[in-house]
Structure formats: C-alpha cells, structure tokens
Give the backbone structure.
Amino acid sequence: MTKFDAFPVLVNRLSRVAHAMQFSHGLNPAQWEALRYLEKANRYSSSPSAMADYLGATKGTVSQTLIALESKGLVKRDRCPNDRRAVVLALTDAGREILSQDPLCQIYAATEKVPEEERQQLVGVMKSILDDLCVRQNSSQFGVCGDCCHLGEGICAGEGTCGITGDPLGASDLHRICIDFSPCEGDERTSTSSLDSTGVW
Ligand code: SF4
C-alpha cells in the first residue's frame, strides 16, 4: 500500500454512494445505467450484447434489466432493418423523460464548486484510468467517432464516414458511443474534447 492508495479507496466509496442513490423513481442502478447507455449509443451499439459489453454484465442480467424497462414503458425493441435476426433497442419518450431526473445529477451538482478547469482535468484523469483498466481487462473501450482511428478522411462540416462500415456519419452520429471504437494512437484527436457536458460517455 502506498500514499496513492487513497485514490482507489475514494473511487470505491464514490461508487458505493452513487450505487445507493440510484434506487429511485422505481428503478435500480442497472436500469438507470441501461437507460443512460441507450441515450448515448450509436446505431451499431444499440443491441443487448453491446450493452452487456459496456456494462460489464452478463447477457442474462442485461436481458432481465431490459424486460423490466420494457414493462415500465421506458425502452422499446425493434428488428434491425438490415438483419431481421438482430434487435435494435431505443428509449421511448417516457425513457427520455425519466432520464431528465437522473439521480447521478446529484454528483454533478456536488462538483459545481470545483473550478471548471480542475473539473475537466479530473474528468480527463478518470477517463484515462478507465481506458487503461479496459485495456488491462481486455474489454471494449467504447468511444466516439471524433477520437476513433476508423473515422474516414474528409471529415467536413461535422460529418464523416465510418472506415469499418463505409456508412456516412452525420453530426449526431459523431457524438455517440460505439462498440467498434478504436482509439487514435498518438493522435491529437484523443482528448477530452469529445466528452459531453457531463464529462462522460
Ligand atoms: S468511426 Fe469508429 S466510432 Fe465511429 S462508427 Fe465507425 S467504428 Fe464506430
């Protein structure tokens, strides 16, 4: 143990506090996390298996979570137009509405006294730690197109092309998280600039 051990201990305590505050509005922490994920996931990542990957949960656990959210009218599932065997998940209007009351906003409120520059630095450090842990545990990193090595050349006016699928990417796609994301090694695009207003994706 070293003096730096305060960091993992604090992360663990914060995690427990965050977990406890998410038993609200008739939902549990896993259900809140699933709603947040669907709000940010891009078209290639709106599946139960991608969600399980992101949440670090089993497909069985995610299936139970989705059944509960569907029964509450917060999530809907459709067949993928390009592959009728695949399922595409989406928030309903009620799902988007309840997210406006996300209990994790209490954590954001608790950081309001911290100067914005320090807050962004903290976000960058925590994101870096998370990325490193994902690599060490061989789990998908997830990220947005603006930081992805597969983003095609010729990006213009906030649009681009996915180098994997060849699909055009509109401005709204570029800020959504993707399971096929791969970071740009040593590229200046790998920065916290693509983090959203809450500082996470
Ligand atoms: S460019 Fe990267 S992040 Fe964007 S859709 Fe393609 S693989 Fe996903």
Remarks:
- The pocket of iron/sulfur cluster is lined by residues 42, 44, 145, 148, 150-151, 162, 164, 178, 180-181 (CB under 6 Å).
- Helices lie at 6-21, 29-40, 48-55, 59-71, 93-99, 105-110, 116-136.
- The two ends are 31 Å apart (CA to CA).
